Amino acid sequence: MAKEKLTPEEKERLKFEKEREAWRKREAAGRKRKKGAPDKTKIIASIISIVLAAVVVCSIGYIYGKSYGLPGRFLTATSLEGDSISAPEYAFFFYNQYYNVAYQAEQFMSSYGLDLMQLDTTKSPWGQASPYGMQWPTYLKKQTDASVLGLLAMIQAAEKAGITLSDADKAAVESQIDELKATAQSYGMSYGAFLRLNYTAGITPAKYKKILEREKIIAAYEEKLKADYGAAHTDAELQEEYDKDPAAYNSVSVRILTFTKDTLTAAEGESDDALAKRQETADKAVVAEAKTFTSKVSSEDSFLKAAAEENSDIEGYDADSATGQFLVQKDDLSSFGTDVTDWIFNKSRKAGDKTTIEGTSSVYCIYMIQPAYAPLTVDFYTVDYAFPSPADGVANTEEEKAQTKEQADATLQQWKDSGATEEAFKELAAAAHSAEEDVEEDHVHGFYPATSPSDITDNSVKKWLFDKSRKDGETAIVETSTGYAVFYFVRQNTSEPAWLKALREEKSETDYDAYYASLTSGTGEGAAKLNENRLGIYFAMKTAQNMVENYVRNSASSAG
After folding, report:
1. What is the C-alpha separation between 93 and 104, in angstroms, rounded?
2. Which residue in 154, 39, 147 sits closest to 94, CA to CA?
3. Where are the beta strands (DSSP E) in 263-375?
4. What is the pLDDT of residues 121-136, one digit of tens each?
5. What is the pTM assigned to this prediction?
6. H helices then E strands: how many in the chain?
7. Closest of 482, 486, 460 to residue 474, by C-alpha
8. What is the Cα–Cα distance from 97 to 426, expressed in whole angstroms?
9. What is the tens place of the pLDDT at every residue in 394-418?
10. How far are the Cα atoms of 36, 276, 286, 417 from residue 273, in angstroms, in the given order?
11. Can you tell me the distance from the alpha carbon of 537 to that of 142, in angstroms, rounded to the nearest whole number?
């Protein structure tokens, strides 16, 4: 029978595969992200993120009882053309590498019960083999060296390019420091002691601030490089690239209902031939059921009605969200197979087309809402109101939703009372987002320029923003999966379709990656190479091992 787009098991497996592939790409690239993910310009991972309450609570006696003394704190671990990384800093970078991998391992294990990382965080990584053909400590040291090399090479290149800290970056650094100071105070500790405890004994307030400032400078330099690289590619050049394969960049809106073939197992004494015939009969029955479903469909509404009837035995089934694929690209539908994507992106497709396609393990019923086209990017303002966070497994009540809606209504009314202009909404959005500290994102205080459908995950928002009939200056309150959002639509960018933005970003990323590789691979002209101080590295690794082993004890204690 029909399933909710995918069975729960298939959905979890697909989600896992996507997250695993995303992690592998991030691991390979080291710097790339999509909008909404952590800033891709950060070579050093977020520092505040590795402060764990468990470290503070459990490790005081251990770390102070196993200090490696003052000498190691003043040693250089590695350097590049006179710019050095101290042993404590190197220890911190190594520990940060471990923490990121351990966090990923625990997330995958918690969500899927799968040991993707092949790292048992309840045991010391010293002695554990990684999936990279070497012991985990060896791999982590290689990653640390690459991170440190990138840091030093990029900071030197940025300084040569005249990149300095902006006022906004300075404010962001101070904000991060204030946040950490508040965390330290909540534990009844001084700021300096908190840094020593969580970031190794030699990380002083001055060193920590320098790390943050360098991170900001590198981010600004990378942003400038990518902007320059992107601008170097002409519209004509990108148009030619797009024309080679428009389907790779165009968007479609379709509904897909999946009928899953059950995999049969042999009965006692059943031969392989008999099992194969029984499987074939069962598969044909699923195909017949799917074709019957498709025959009932004459419109999008009839598709939704038929899907709801087909899945009436599934509690809470929502045909709209379960079958809708809105303004998605070919890659987004790759899990359905090439037969499905080839049909959907065929140039002859028209709105209202439908079909049934048999796959290896599933049968797909497809209804075309909007054939493939090249959407424009859009500019808009938004003020968001999230539903209250409910307890796990408990949905928000209608009363909670109504209260959230009242906030959105009040904002829209305030805008109307303030003159109902773009400037009035801009001021409202700026006030609502005034607490935002991340000024490195593509939006500032609720304004989102040149936004593509791929930048938006919520279908309700996507359908409203990219409606072809949307007019400049229109407003709306849209219910999302997490709350209500008040929108002010500024414009469709007729000079920048989504494909043009995507291709320019791709070219920019490719050019930047080539520059970064030439700078840090050790093979390009002027490529950077680290000079390692063995004694400094010895102290750094001892300190890092101390931190890692403490994490392991805390992890084992939590698991036990």
Report:
1. 17
2. 147
3. 324-328, 354-358, 362-373
4. 999 999 999 999 999 9
5. 0.78
6. 18, 12
7. 486
8. 41
9. 778 899 999 999 999 999 999 999 9
10. 52, 5, 20, 76
11. 13
